[in-house]
Amino acid sequence: MIIARRIPAFTEQTISFQIDDQTEYLVITASGSSVTLTLETPNVARRQILTGLRNIKAIKLSGLSRGTYKVRVRSKSDTTLYVVGKTDFFFKYGFSQWEPRVLEDTTPQPVANDLTYLSVSVVDPKHTVRIVSAQILDMNERVKVDLPLRRLNNDFYTTGPFSTPTYMFKVAVSVNLSQIIDYYF
């Protein structure tokens, strides 16, 4: 999710955001009574209208160029705007009771109710992804713990020690491409 915003009725708003060369495509949706959606973009290879109804607009942009993108929306009612993008990068994570130097020093399962380090290794050959934090989510994907990450080398990060939850959980990372975007895996 790049943008999730609610805009008041009868208010025209222009929202700018940065896209880097890792983003494969964007989907921009706006909903509201008689909503208008206008885009200002750098060179885009393809614009595909997914929905062009009176109260819902959705556009997919692909073949993106790095740069500043602008979305202008207006509606007779409150407007909901979402901009999502697809960026391919993968990560692996592991847990350790001692601060690891490589992912191989970790295990996939933490020891419950004990202090542990969470480590994240990113598969990013261009080294453009910068992870900001790791998040512990409950099974409904609500953030329960936000853990700052420290970068140990190009693509390897670790948290400080924290007490692991006793409930089932998921791990997410928050990254900094050109801005902070949350990716949940």
Short description:
This protein is an all-beta fold and 185 residues long. The chain has strands at 3-7, 13-19, 23-31, 36-40, 46-52, 56-62, 67-74, 79-87, 90-96, 115-123, 130-137, 143-148, 150-153, 156-158, 162-163, 170-176, 180-184. It has a five-stranded antiparallel β-sheet with strand order 1-8-3-6-5, with no helix packed on it.
Structure description:
With 185 residues, this protein is an all-beta fold. The protein folds into two domains: 3-87, Sandwich (Jelly Rolls); 90-184, Immunoglobulin-like (Sandwich), CATH 2.60.40. The protein has strands spanning 3-7, 13-19, 23-31, 36-40, 46-52, 56-62, 67-74, 79-87, 90-96, 115-123, 130-137, 143-148, 150-153, 156-158, 162-163, 170-176, 180-184. The protein has a five-stranded antiparallel beta sheet with strand order 1-8-3-6-5, with no helix packed on it. Strands 9, 10, 13, 14 and 15 form a five-stranded antiparallel beta sheet that branches. The protein is elongated and about 55 Å long. 25% of the residues are buried. The model is unreliable at 177-185 (pLDDT under 50).
**CATH architecture descriptor name of the largest domain:** Sandwich
Number of domains: 2
What structural category do the secondary elements indicate?
A: mainly beta
Helix-residue proportion: under 10%
**What kind of sheet is the major sheet?**
5 strands, antiparallel
Series of H and E elements: EEEEEEEEEEEEEEEEE
Total count of helical runs of at least 4 residues:
0
The Cα radius of gyration reads: 20 Å
